[in-house]
Amino acid sequence: MDAVTIPREKLLATLKAALPDGILFSAKDDIERYTRDWSGDHFGMPLAVARPRSVDEVSQLMRCCSTNNIPVVPQGGLTGLVGAAVAAPGGGEVVISLERLNKLRSISAIDFAMVVEAGCILEEAKRHAEAEDCILPITFGAQGSCRVGGNVATNAGGFNVLRYGMTRDLVLGLEVVLADGRVWNGLKLLRKDNRGYDLKQLFIGSEGTLGIVTAVSLKLFPKPTQVETALVGLRSVEDAMALYARARRECSDLLTAFELILRGGIDIALGARPGLRDPLSEVCPVYVLIEASAGGRVDLRAILQDFLISADDLMIDGVVAASRAQGDQLWLLRELMVEAQGRGGRYLRTDVSVPISMLAGFVGDTLAALEKSHPHALAVTYGHVGDGNIHLNVVPPVGMEADAIETLFHETEEVIFDVVDRYGGSLSAEHGIGKVKQEAFLKRIDEVSLDVASRIKDALDPTGIMSRGRIFLPRAHSKEVGER
Ligand SMILES: Cc1cc2nc3c(=O)[nH]c(=O)nc-3n(C[C@H](O)[C@H](O)[C@H](O)COP(=O)(O)OP(=O)(O)OC[C@H]3O[C@@H](n4cnc5c(N)ncnc54)[C@H](O)[C@@H]3O)c2cc1C
């Protein structure tokens, strides 16, 4: 037996002895589906997969891992795209899947709030809200797979951020199991509470590096009785941004989504589903998918139609969906474009942000820089531009060798991030840092921010067992399994 196998077996035995039956899985077939993320780009082999059934079991598990210095990585629906939720390849980490903690604990249409466990699939949580004539507004393509704990840990955004904010804006309280196994009960329904530090904010967006979210209390909103969707074609991103500024004012701030798609994205969507028709009669360089929603006594359709007529100077063509089914068809273009953009292969994903007022200049400069540096790569551009957030993805030419693809990704990412830097933007608006963006992030973080973040990490995870090597590099005193 080699030196690494012995401690792993010992660690497994230690874990098994400390935990109730039916939580820990290590056979190949049992752990297979926890080893690969949604994209298929990230793979990792855990020491074991733990599937706790209660907060108490998460606590027991963490106590054991902390005492024995066993590294852990919490896992939700595996749709995060930065390689953070799969185990490291070496087989040293315990994956903690929250999938069995998936219940609705309470919901109140008077509080406009719900408490849901971290393993609840987002779409399921949204259904619970709708049953009370409310909405949970976190909305995006992966909602059928991602879990609420994952949404909190990544501070997920999505289509409706411009109206309702990021996940951070929707969280009223959290229950978190700390690295040492203690349970912090910060679950509240309070809208206003200024008793000292707002500790929940530390865990939101922490990508599993500070604690394990086990339950979340979330804000709900009245379910809109009217939803209107329009697709408009424009000459330029500048015109799209001018349209956005006017739309917010002239549609009584009732916009819920304002999605930019460049023509290349529409072509990808149309190519992905034979028979799908181009919804506009004219081919336009730039498109915007607009959604507005309202309840009560407003004529939302009239508001949107009047606005679009008044914005005729900015638009080439446009259509307002006549029914929900037609609205869904317009959204289908957006979904198909995301699914089909990589032609079934790997592609570089970015999710950058700049101030809204600078977005058009940023897109123009970045596309020009990519065209100059890598003219053969396909840049696919779309985003939640109402939040200044753009996905500028790079698809390699057909037939490119794997090594050349890696180089292309590295080089084009640098080209994009250089422009982001010039515009004072962020290299991650939504998906987080994980492992994929770590190098670029650490290259740019300032000394004071790094120092403060390291102290928070040290305080909450003194032995460095939580999501080791994600966001930040592993600390010197974090032992790898096999070293002890
Ligand atoms: C098609 C598609 C579209 C997407 N669109 C968007 C979008 O519009 N906006 C957006 O923001 N994101 C988007 N994403 C990214 C992704 O869906 C989100 O980041 C989501 O919130 C991840 O949730 P998850 O449950 O899948 O988490 P995972 O992928 O399982 O985990 C993500 C991170 O959270 C940590 N984690 C998971 N659960 C917990 C927990 N209970 N406690 C502590 N840490 C935990 C993990 O360790 C990891 O670091 C998209 C992804 C896909 C595939």
Break the fold down into its secondary structure elements and pairings.
Elements: H1 5-18, E1 24-25, H2 28-31, E2 48-50, H3 55-67, E3 72-75, E4 94-97, E5 104-108, E6 113-117, H4 122-131, E7 134-135, H5 148-154, H6 161-164, H7 167-170, E8 171-177, E9 183-186, H8 200-203, E10 212-219, E11 221-222, E12 226-234, H9 237-250, E13 255-262, H10 263-272, E14 286-294, H11 300-310, E15 315-320, H12 324-340, E16 352-353, H13 359-373, E17 378-384, E18 389-395, H14 402-422, H15 438-444, H16 447-460
Parallel strand pairs: 2-4, 3-4
Antiparallel strand pairs: 1-2, 5-6, 6-10, 7-11, 8-9, 8-10, 12-14, 12-15, 13-14, 13-17, 16-18, 17-18
Helix pairs in contact: 9-13, 10-12, 13-14
The chain binds flavin-adenine dinucleotide.
Helix/sheet category: alpha+beta
Percent helix range: 25-40%
Across the major sheet, the strand order is 15-12-14-13-17-18-16
Bound molecules: flavin-adenine dinucleotide
In DSSP terms (H or I, runs of 4 or more residues), the helix count works out at 16
The average pLDDT value, as a whole number, equals 94
Number of strands: 18
The major pleated sheet works out as: 7 strands, antiparallel
- The quaternary state of the protein chains shown equals single chain
**Rg (C-alpha, Å):** 23 Å
Beta-strand portion reads 15-25%
Low-confidence stretches: 1-6, 479-484
Rounded to the nearest angstrom, the distance between the terminal CA atoms is: 16 Å
Shape: globular
